[in-house]
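Try it yourself: sequence plus flavin-adenine dinucleotide, in.
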Amino acid sequence: MADSGANLVILGGGSGGYACALRAAELGLSVTLVEKDKLGGTCLHRGCIPTKALLHAAEVADAAREGDQIGVKSSLAGIDMAGVNTYKDGVVGRLYKGLQGLVASRGITYVEGSGTFVTSGGGAGAVEVNGDRYTGDNVVLATGSYARSLPGLEIGGRIITSDQALTLNEVPKRVVVLGGGVIGVEFASVWRSFGAEVTVVEALPRLVPNEDEFASKQLERAFRRRKIAAKTGVKFTGANQTDDGVTVKLESGETLEADLLLVAVGRGPNTAGHGYEEAGIALDRGFVTVDEKLRTNRPNVYAVGDIVPGLQLAHRGFQQGIFVAETIAGLNPPPIDEAGIPRVTYCEPEVASVGLTEAQARERFGEVQTLTYDLAGNGKSQILRTSGAVKLVKAGAEGTSGPVVGVHMVGGRVGELIGEAQLIYNWDAHAEDVAPLVHAHPTQTEALGEAHLALAGKPLHTHG
Ligand SMILES: Cc1cc2nc3c(=O)[nH]c(=O)nc-3n(C[C@H](O)[C@H](O)[C@H](O)COP(=O)(O)OP(=O)(O)OC[C@H]3O[C@@H](n4cnc5c(N)ncnc54)[C@H](O)[C@@H]3O)c2cc1C
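Structure, out:
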């Protein structure tokens, strides 16, 4: 059966898809949203929200363990994973309910079921769900991503991905994390705080390899202090599991014994089996090829979120969804600057960045100036007993005025500083623009202020 048609049919109700639906409905467009599992997608149910709940529980565990160090009599009696999971699931459940209410209140037609994109039916095409056809003047593909593994490494039992890692009933004693990217270091951090022995294995020469090298060095140092072992530049060659444990083999000949192996080697685009290829949608290594307006090669068919090459982040998906809705409504929004999307890794200590790394900036501008401000000089960071630093990258040589094109931060809670950092980057601010802005004392935002003061040539609490 075919429906009467909508302005917009969206396939996938994750961050990208539902944001597009909400904005399009707000702009007066008729919207059909098709979702086969749960509204909210990976971010809400298996990604951002549950992992950050675990990381908060980890922070509380560290605080209990370390209270004595600042005269607060406390100790960590243990981790009750059932209690942690109840807390985590409660957060997810409340947000899920709120999101369902929001979608219902905006008059969006919500269709439950697995959809297939088809080109027939007029307009941009249609999505077929259980024999019913939903046609649209425009179609947005937003089917997200899945946890990848390595060839020959089968997921199951003691070899898990982030999906299973979020539902563990007990804390592993020893765990190997394969992959030192965002997801890998976040789980490594949680399990270490919960008392596990953790080893991270990363084939590239450094942890968080997409970040500025400065951030990797800071994080590696902090992980060493936390006794999280990081084996970087080391290739994994295989794993065997028994009832008692898993043996992980490395190219160096070394073997690691653990209770669990977390495979966190990246996420692949979920683009197979939904009719894309059959409809002639251009794909590149499984990702949907789009132009700067997120248009696919088929007229009026767009793609948003993790299926589009680039940063796989929920807020990028939101932004792309909003962008497409506004484009369809004729608002002609400016293209999204991928480098202006803030990036936060929520391990302890946190890593936060926006803009270009020093290497990228050198490639683009030739001459750059950098400035690093150590959190040792920041009162609030001392109070929190965290260490780390803020690094600024400015376009142009020392002595010239140029925009700040990269902000990189490592330290406890620095993720909260990314709001200001992204304004600085996205508004092309120069150090001289930021230097006169007053930062509340004592806050960690002062570290950003101090860094810009120093870059503008008038350092305050900075040693020469
Ligand atoms: C462990 C983990 C932690 C993360 N932490 C963060 C974080 O802290 N911050 C951050 O910004 N990002 C984080 N991410 C990434 C974030 O979750 C993704 O970038 C985001 O969810 C992508 O949104 P999306 O809409 O593209 O896809 P998804 O959220 O994956 O949504 C796609 C939806 O499409 C549905 N679907 C697929 N195929 C069909 C079909 N044929 N028919 C109907 N429905 C279909 C799926 O069921 C799913 O609900 C994390 C990811 C993981 C795995």
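One thing you can check immediately is this: The radius of gyration is 24 Å.
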